């Protein structure tokens, strides 16, 4: 697809075209309730109209602070239709985390679950928030399902204080649909601001324009899936959280932009996933290594018929060879690796028409250009040698949101093109595929999540008794890496232990960022200019684990 076509048909306008072509086809199946393309479009346009009536306009930022649910999809489409900018964040973030992101993004509206409304209420006085739209996971299900869910305590509920600033999501679906779609410049107008870990301890906002998102969605649909994807007659199961760029991109690529059915899972519960695959014949799946391992180790796996599964993708972390081999042996289909980042979008995919190599992350997408360089000189290394991966695309925004120093470090100008430094070390094999070798010591991969070591260190160092902290990832076969913190206390600190610091972290960080354990030391290794040598600690942990394995 050329640039003219990309500009004319963005991800949400392509969904509109699918809704005209397949109005009665199930677009999303959520907790047993079917939402046809026609119904989903109607709901999203009603929501868009209500947002416009509330004064939300083109360019305004709207935070989506909810779990996977049909409301997430409706909100995404509705916000895009009025030209506003989505700010998707994890529903397990604390008030400490969302306060920073609301202030940084300038969001004045937040869509949240009733179960995390307490956090939103807490930050109203300290941020520029003007209004909250509150929903429950079961809000759009039939009454009898909601009643049974409450009766058997299957649906979590939270207390919501109703006032003029708080609106019900369901009430915003009653007014008439949006009368006219807003004119957008796909190059200049933003589609989203996603947050990722920062090297300074603060999350960085990554702005994405409409054409940038459309470019990789189009690549996946046409060049990766191609004829393997059956338009209007295929089924994709969405397990990963939609606030993650890989999950959102595949939901649009394989599902809503091709007239197919997306099976939307609110939570990654293995038995529910397996039952859903069997019942609805899912052919496409995206998971993280931990999910594939949990499926293989499920005691009830033999009860389920997963014969429909044909195309399985893995992202978020490197897939262990052992899991790759066990999956192929158990189900007879391979797992294809995908690779990308919040900043660069989707970058590489293993191609379906090739037998995947367990260590390769694939070939670059058509709209992405990759080079492997020496991290010190930024000069390309010879084919087959290890170097840092740099990525560019003519379609993406090449800066962080209001973070010039972070931008200067992470984006580099080489021969007139701006490349993003992925921070990952790779090599290119004889077939041109990229093979993952190692990640930057600053990023920890825990259960598919990217944890910024600097962010956790900054929270620990905010404790009044902590003078220094170093956070590293400790290799773990089941979760990728465990988060470990090494802490130095002030000389006059008394009575402070690991439990106290973990409680401090839990109050300020999402659960997956909280260290698994804390070790106390008298000092941390630093360079001559005072820079923390995190890699030394990381290598030390690896040597310790290797020694323990040999001893056992």
Helix % is 25-40%
Number of DSSP helical runs: 16
CATH architecture of the domain at 3-267: 3-Layer(aba) Sandwich
Number of strands: 26
The level 1 CATH classification of the domain at 3-267 is Alpha Beta
The CATH topology assignment of the domain at 3-267 is Rossmann fold
Sketch the major β-sheet. Answer: 14 strands, mixed
Average residue pLDDT: 91
Output the structural class: alpha/beta
Low-confidence stretches: none
Measured distance between first and last alpha carbons: 56 Å
* Global Rg: 23 Å
| Morphology | globular
Strand content: 25-35%
Characteristic terms for this protein:
single chain; 552 residues; alpha/beta; Rossmann fold; GMP Synthetase, Chain A, domain 3; five-stranded parallel β-sheet; 16 helices
Please provide a written account of the structure.
This protein is an alpha/beta fold and 552 residues long. Among the domains are: 3-267, 3-Layer(aba) Sandwich (Rossmann fold), CATH 3.40.50; 444-551, ANL, C-terminal domain (GMP Synthetase, Chain A, domain 3, 2-Layer Sandwich). 32% of the residues lie in helices and 26% in strands. It is built from 16 helices and 26 strands. The strands form five sheets. Strands 1, 2, 10, 11, 12, 13, 14, 15, 16, 17, 18, 19, 20 and 21 form a 14-stranded mixed sheet that branches. The longest helix is centred in the C-terminal third of the chain and has 18 residues, at 534-551. The protein starts with a helix and ends with a helix.
